[in-house]
Structure formats: structure tokens, C-alpha cells
Write a structure and sequence with these properties.
Number of strands of chain B: 10
Strand order of the largest sheet of chain A: 2-3-1-4
Radius of gyration of chain B: 17 Å
Number of domains of chain A: 2
Bound molecules: adenosine-5'-triphosphate, magnesium ion
Distance between the termini of chain A: 23 Å
Largest sheet of chain A: 4 strands, antiparallel
Strand order of the largest sheet of chain B: 6-7-8-3-9-10
Number of strands of chain A: 4
Order of helices and strands of chain B: EEEHEEHEHHHEHEHEE
Shape of chain A: rod-shaped
Oligomer: heterodimer
Structural class of chain B: alpha/beta
Structural class of chain A: alpha+beta
CATH superfamily of chain B: P-loop containing nucleotide triphosphate hydrolases
Helix content of chain A: over 70%
Number of helices of chain B: 7
Order of helices and strands of chain A: HHEHEHEHEHHHH
Chain lengths: ~280, ~230
């Protein structure tokens, strides 16, 4: 088995057809960039939505006549409700401080006593950050004696619930289209590369080359082109300033995966042509 | 016709190539060969002559098993067209040296590599490749052009490289399809003389041509083909 021939021939292939090799490489890179773009957009969108949902906080305002000790008992009752992840007590004094910090005004300059009620800030478990379930929690909290009013941005949750389905569907369709386009782009580039060598392959067969002998350097060359394409893509994402992003590790393995995959695809496509 | 006696181990002369009552139809045009009989002995020089479209190239294709007879059979060395498997075909061709009117060199590598390719496919060792390629190039008088690319050579030189590639593997027979068809008289004569010399060293040659004058001058065995029939 002439391993040395295969390796040298595949590298020679690069040198002999620099333009074609460059085009294949950049097509692969371009397709990878497109797919990476879809991935980045999709994952960022997902994160934005999660953040929005996490920001939705519930605040249960207490009857102003309650003492802080009585309020402590209510806290236990709230914690017992399904879907509650955490509870933070905001005393009348703290509410006042926050009010003054936010509005920069001294309440006592207008009023004689603190008008702000004590409250509990309730964090929901992630799976309860949907409008239906959040409403269940709010109702349950509202029924507790001593709770005056429960306030939260249920409208945001309702909005997300209503439209996220469409956004996800749209994103999925877009992703599939881009993926399909990339695959077509790569396979067509490969097909052209093969056609441009049909003549050479024909001659090689006349001289008595087996299909495997013809195929092996092409396979390796295809893998190298895929690898180089993946490398260009990796350099791009590095230059994009994402190197400190934890995603870049995933990008690294995706790079290996895609380069090997596209190399293999190249080789397989060529194999089909050779044996016909 | 040939002074050399090539005997096989059984002591009988056995043809390298035999075509028995071959009929062959191209599916696209419905044309091809009607009835072809041909046998070439070791060391023989045979001209295959006939007008354009008679089926000369198709006969050669039968021998290098690019096409297969719809009736009859073709035997090349130990391979028979009836029993041959697809993966045997490269090995059929390694027993042959093939030369075409249009040279068919690999345009992407130099003269040395073009000739070497016929040996590389067999898995020959590097030293052996170098030795044999240089010897074959020497025989066609092109050792000094071994680093040139095909497009840097004249037509006659390209055909001589093709000849070197055809003989480097020490084939049983050289098949030549109008090898001088694209060449000026001088280059044509040079290629013709090389074919004669190759034959004189013991390699059989089957050359297709429609140049009747040339054929008559040579005094070699002639097989005529017309409308897909040999006579
Ligand atoms: N690839 C092909 N597909 C279909 N028909 C073909 C093909 N090659 C040859 N033929 C037909 O088969 C017949 C024999 O053709 P062939 O090429 O063997 O003739 P030839 O004697 O070599 O002619 P020439 O001297 O012009 O080269 C012709 O009628 C031709 O049209
Ligand atoms: Mg012809």
C-alpha cells in the first residue's frame, strides 16, 4: 500500500489546482460561517427569552397594619406554595429606602408616616415562568390572609408564551434552509471539482489504476480542504473576539466535526463518481 | 511474419489477444461491430486498417475492456470478457500499453510523473520506478525533457511520452489508435519507427490506422475492417 504516494498526491493536488482548492475551501468556510451564524442567533435569542422570563418577579404587598413578626409567618406560607423558588422580605423601612433611592425624594417631607407597605419578593422556579403557572402562584399567594395585592408582569409572560412558538418555528425553518443551502453549496462545489478532473480520472483508469488508487488521494485532499475550511471558520470566530466566550470550546469541536464530515462527504461523492 | 518465436510454458504459441465472432452494439447509436475475429501472437506487429467509422477504435476498446461484446468473446492474457469482473479491469490494462491519437497525458504533472504513473498504480517501489521510467524515456529519446510539463512539449514529443508510458510496464502488447494521426510527417515517422523498435525488442503491437500507403510500405500483417466486419 503506497501511503506515501497517497499523501504526496493529495498535497500535490492542492498545488496543482490552487484555485479550485481555494474555492472549495472558502465555500466550506462560508457554509460553516452561515451555519455558525444561525447557531449564534438561535442560542442568543434563547438566552434573551430566558433572561426576560427570569426578570419577571412577583411582589406580594402586605396589609400595612401587620407587624414584621406576623409577616414572617406569611413568608413560610408562601414558601410552601408549589413553584416558589425563593422569597425575600422587604420591610416597610427597606421599601422606603428603595423608594428614596429610586426617586431621590424624602417621603417625610410630604407625609407624616411611611405609606409604603411591607412586601415579599417572590422568585419563581424556571418551569413556572409561564403565564398560566405564574397566575396559579399569584392566586395562591393572594389568598393568604394578610396579603393585600400580588403584582407581577404577567403581560410579558403572556406575550412570550404567545409568540415564542412562532419565533421558534420560524427560526427552525430558517435554520433548516440555511443548513440545506450549505450542504447543497458544498456538494455542488465538490461535484464541480470532480467534473474538472473527469478527464484525468479517465486517463488514470486507462493506465490500469484501480478505483481505490484514484480515490484515496482525492479523499485525503477533500478532508484537507474540509479541515482548512473549518480552520478558516475557526479563525473567523477567533477574530470575532469570541475567544473568551465559553461557546468557543463548543465551536472547536464543531470545527473538527464539520471538517471531518465535509471531508468524508467529499470523499464519498468522489467515490461514487470513480466507480461509475 | 515474425522471426522471433514466443512460446509459452507448454511449448505452444498462444495468442495474447483473441477476439471470437464479436458483435458489439453501442446502445446510443445502434452502431458498433457486426462480426470481428482477430488474434495477435506474442511479438507480432499487426495493422488494423479500414475507413473512418469502420470500427477500429471499437476493436481496441474491446481489448482494453472499455466496452464488452454483446455476442462472442474477447480474451486478453488470462482474462475473458465473459468471466471478467469489474475489479479485474485495471489488471487487464496493466498487461497493455495504450496510445491514442490525442496522446492523453495527465496535464497536471510532468513527463517523469506521467510515465511513472503506470508503475505507481502497480505499487512498484520508488527505486524501481525511477530506473524503469528513465529507461523508458531513454528509449523514446526524451530523458532530457523529464521535468517538462506536457503542454511544454510538441505533439510528437507528447506522443513519445505516451509511448514511454505504454512500454514502461513491459506490457504483452501495445495498442495504438492512430498514433500518428495528429502529427506532421516527420514526427509521425519518428513515432512509427519507435513502434517498430519496440516490436523488434519483442513486444506485440496492434496499430489502428487508415493510412493505407504507410501500411503497404511496412510489409507487416494487416487485418482489414469494414462496416464492423474483419476480413
Ligand atoms: N461512444 C460511442 N457511442 C455510440 N456510437 C459510437 C461510439 N463510438 C463509436 N461509435 C460508432 O461505432 C462505429 C465504429 O466507430 P469507431 O470509432 O470504432 O470507428 P473507427 O474505425 O475508429 O473510425 P475512425 O477512423 O474515424 O476513428 C461508428 O459508426 C461510430 O459512429
Ligand atoms: Mg477511431
Amino acid at each position: 500500500m503506497s501511503v506515501w504516494y497517497t499523501v504526496r498526491e493529495s498535497l500535490e493536488g492542492f498545488r496543482r489546482a490552487r484555485m479550485a482548492a481555494a474555492i472549495t475551501t472558502f465555500t466550506v468556510a462560508f457554509a460553516l460561517v452561515l451555519m455558525a451564524l444561525v447557531y449564534i442567533v438561535a442560542s442568543n435569542l434563547g438566552r434573551v427569552v430566558l433572561n426576560l422570563r427570569a426578570r419577571v418577579q412577583m411582589e406580594a404587598f402586605l396589609d400595612p397594619s401587620l407587624t414584621d413578626q406576623e409577616a414572617q409567618k406569611i413568608e413560610d406560607q408562601i414558601r410552601a406554595i408549589a413553584g416558589v423558588a425563593g422569597v425575600e422580605f422587604v420591610s416597610k423601612e427597606k421599601a422606603l429606602l428603595e423608594f428614596e433611592r429610586e426617586f431621590g425624594e424624602d417621603v417625610f417631607s410630604v407625609l407624616d408616616e411611611n405609606p409604603l407597605p411591607a412586601s415579599f419578593r417572590i422568585r419563581l422556579k424556571p418551569e413556572f415562568r409561564r403565564s398560566q403557572l405564574a397566575k396559579q402562584v399569584a392566586d395562591a399567594v393572594g389568598k393568604i390572609d394578610g396579603v393585600d395585592e400580588v403584582v407581577y408582569r404577567g403581560d410579558i409572560l403572556a406575550l412570550l408564551d404567545r409568540y415564542m412558538g412562532y419565533v421558534l418555528l420560524g427560526g427552525a425553518i430558517f435554520g433548516v434552509l440555511i443548513g440545506l443551502g450549505s450542504v447543497l453549496l458544498i456538494s455542488n462545489t465538490i461535484r464541480l471539482a470532480i467534473l474538472s478532473r473527469a478527464n484525468v480520472i479517465e486517463i488514470m483508469k486507462l493506465v490500469g489504476a484501480t478505483n481505490g488508487f484514484i480515490r484515496r488521494p482525492f479523499l485525503l485532499e477533500g478532508m484537507l480542504q474540509g479541515l482548512l475550511g473549518g480552520f478558516v471558520d475557526a479563525v473567523r470566530s477567533g477574530a470575532g473576539g469570541q475567544s473568551r466566550d465559553p461557546e468557543s470550546h463548543r465551536g472547536g469541536s464543531a470545527f473538527v466535526f464539520w471538517s471531518c464530515g465535509s471531508g468524508l462527504a467529499t470523499g464519498l461523492a468522489r467515490q461514487c463518481r470513480c466507480s461509475s | 511474419m515474425n522471426s522471433l518465436d514466443f512460446s509459452n510454458s507448454e511449448g505452444r504459441r498462444r495468442p495474447i489477444v483473441r477476439i471470437y465472432n464479436a458483435r458489439m452494439v453501442y446502445s446510443r447509436t445502434g452502431e458498433g461491430l457486426t462480426r470481428v475475429n482477430l488474434s495477435v501472437d506474442p511479438g507480432e506487429f499487426v495493422f488494423l486498417v479500414g475507413p473512418s467509422g469502420a470500427g477500429k477504435s471499437t476493436v481496441l476498446k474491446l481489448i482494453y475492456m472499455d466496452v464488452f461484446p454483446t455476442e462472442g468473446q474477447v480474451i486478453v492474457g488470462k482474462y475473458n470478457s465473459i468471466y471478467v469482473r469489474r475489479k479485474d479491469i485495471p489488471y487487464v490494462r496493466r498487461q497493455l500499453g495504450i496510445v491514442f491519437q490525442d496522446f492523453r497525458l495527465l496535464p497536471d504533472r510532468d513527463v517523469f510523473e506521467n510515465v511513472a504513473f503506470a508503475l505507481r498504480v502497480t505499487g512498484a517501489r520508488r527505486k524501481e520506478i525511477k530506473r524503469k521510467v528513465l529507461r523508458a524515456l531513454g528509449e523514446v529519446g526524451l530523458s532530457h525533457k523529464r521535468s517538462k510539463m506536457p503542454h511544454q512539449l510538441s505533439g510528437g514529443e507528447q506522443q513519445r511520452v505516451a509511448l514511454a508510458r505504454a512500454i514502461v510496464n513491459e506490457p504483452l502488447i501495445v495498442l495504438a489508435d492512430e498514433p500518428t494521426g495528429n502529427l506532421d510527417p516527420e514526427a509521425a515517422e519518428m513515432v512509427m519507427n519507435l513502434l517498430l523498435r519496440i516490436n523488434a525488442k519483442g513486444t506485440a503491437v496492434l496499430m489502428a490506422t487508415h493510412n493505407v500507403d504507410l501500411v503497404e510500405k511496412m510489409g507487416k500483417r494487416v487485418v482489414r475492417i469494414e462496416n464492423g466486419r474483419t476480413f
